[in-house]
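Q: Here's a chain of 408 amino acids. Please give me its 3D structure as tokens.
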Amino acid sequence: MQEIKCPNCGKVFQVDDTGYAQILQQVRDREFEKELSRREEELSQKRESDLAVARMTQEKVHREELLKKDAVLSDREREIERLKAQLEKAETEKKLAVSEAVQEKDRELSDRGAEITKLQNDLVLQQKESALKETNLLEKYRNEMKLREEEIERLKDFKARQSTKMVGESLEQHCLTQFNQIRMTAFPNAYFEKDNDAKTGSKGDFIFRESSDGTEFISIMFEMKNEMDTTASKHKNEDFFKELDKDRNEKNCEYAVLVTLLESDNELYNNGIVDVSYRYPKMFVIRPQFFIPIISLLRNAALNSLEYRKKLADVQNQQLDLYHFEENLSAFKDSFAYSFGQASARFDDAIKGIDNAISALTKIRENLVKSENHLNTANNKLEEVSIKRLTKNAPSVRTMFEEIKAGE
């Protein structure tokens, strides 16, 4: 039995040998673990210290090698840095030029857009005003029609009895006379002549054109048909629409007007100006009394929008100039990009050549260092050479040298 005293309460316990051995073993295990932990910590600290020393040594060697390498490559690196600086400068100038051009383009586009919007709004307003004026004029002419019933009746009776005025003159001559009566007061700068150009196989009767500052703003192809033309075949007005539209297109006229006395009983044509654009674009059918009014109506409507047409044409020309500027800018960018690509390729080739030269110099340096090491080894061996060492395995030669030395 063994006695064990508690260090806290002072009470004595008795334990057998087995229990005592187990308690002792526990105490030894704890002490062993503490010692093991301490040893591990010491080894860890020593390992870290050794690693730090080795790292410092390696860094020192590496710095020395870098210093030697920098001494060899400093000139080339400065040249490379200079080339890089030039390249960065060129890139910056390129970006600045492109940025300025884009900003200028954006400002011009903004100004052009605002101007175009204003002109479009003015044109819409002018079109509305023109439509209102046209409506008012149509209403005015409808009222005037009521006052001209007697003249209409006279024209309706034209087939039965030729009026004194129409005897000996055609409807064409009648319309020409009406126009010439007011030519110098209402249309002093207008062109109104017979269409004598039949190169395409057909021609109209009259062409009306008017220009302002060299810009033509109104053109009308006229075709005149009276009742005498239908004595045999009884043509209708619609029979002449296709040919009139063909003549209008061939002579590059904007409007086509059929002045007719055909279908004298048709109320559609007796009520005023008839718009037949649903059949052919910009085509009208009128009775002779509306010959001057249709010219005035179409001419004034075109004249009101002439200024806006000119402004719109100017804006379109400016847009064309801007398009050409964009083309020139794009061509400059492409040319600059090509030149930059060529310079970049040459720069890359130069860098590769420098890298290859550096690699070759590095190999030469390594070979020189190895050669120096071999020479140092050979020199050390040379210094270690002595007669004793050379005659170690040649006793007769050693004896000869000793006799020579003794003789001296």
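Q: Can you summarize the key feature?
A: DSSP finds nine helices and eight strands in the chain.
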